[in-house]
Amino acid sequence: MNIVNSSVTRSQTSALATNKVLRNTYALLSLTLLFSGAVAGISMALNLPHPGLIISLAGYFGLLFLTTKFRNSAIGLLCVFALTGFMGYTLGPILNQYLALSNGSSIVMTALGGTGAIFLGLSAYALVSRKDFSFMGGFLMVGILVAFLGGLGALFFEMPLLSLAVSGMFVLLMSGLILYETSNIIHGGETNYIMATVTLYVSIYNLFLSLLQLLGVFSGEE
To answer: By the 8 A CB rule, do 147 and 166 touch?
Structure first.
């Protein structure tokens, strides 16, 4: 009897811990999205220049390293906002470029709406179905690496078709990453809400940029 009670207690404790990680993740994700959006808005209003590929990658990976290093302390929270704020700053000039197009507002709003619908739909599916998507981990890691290298190749060698294909890959990969990370939280694979927030934020950011490029191409503006 004691063994049964102990098992039930452990199960309840695990469920409470998982729910806490989930709540903290979505709360922090909401704040970082708002903060990132505000920084992007300021960047757009001031018409700030894009920092360029090298500075963007150095800033992203540098701040990601710091966030990972301090993920178990309050400093980690500051690093998260520094990371998402920096990414918001890099987003501002990109949005200005699209808004300068004849139907740029429509493209941006459609991409924003599509990103929100995909994120909410996939998150809800993972939460309701409670399916375990951990099997996707290896595939996503390899796929993201291949897509990242493909994106660099398309940029340096000016290959628009490859760039379009990479954007399509990122839409699928980021959708898969949302499923994977949400499932990971539910099943106790991810117990740090700071890292969970970063993963979901990066997924949303890349999903939005990829949809922007695809919509820009198919609308005839790129």
So the answer is: yes
pLDDT tens digits for range 107-148: 999 999 999 999 999 999 999 999 999 999 999 999 999 999
User: Are 70 and 80 within 8 A, CB to CB?
Assistant: no
**Spatial separation of the C-alpha atoms in residues 47 and 59, rounded to whole Å:** 20
The Cα–Cα gap between 91 and 209 comes to 9
Q: What is the pLDDT of residues 189-206, one digit of tens each?
A: 889 999 999 999 999 999
Structure tokens at 43: 């960047």
Report the candidate in 181, 202, 204, 179 with the shortest Cα–Cα distance to residue 191.
181
Instruction: Tell me the average pLDDT across 41-61.
Output: 95
Q: How is residue 72 written in tokens?
A: 């178990």
Calculate ∠ Cα 41-45-49, nearest 5°.
Answer: 95
Which residue has 């400093």 as its token pair?
75
Please give the share of the chain, as a percent, with pLDDT higher than 70: 91
Q: Are 146 and 168 in contact (CB under 8 A)?
A: no
Q: How far apart are CA 197 and CA 70, in angstroms?
A: 14
Per-position DSSP letters for 55-68, written without gaps between them: HHHHHHHHHHHHHH
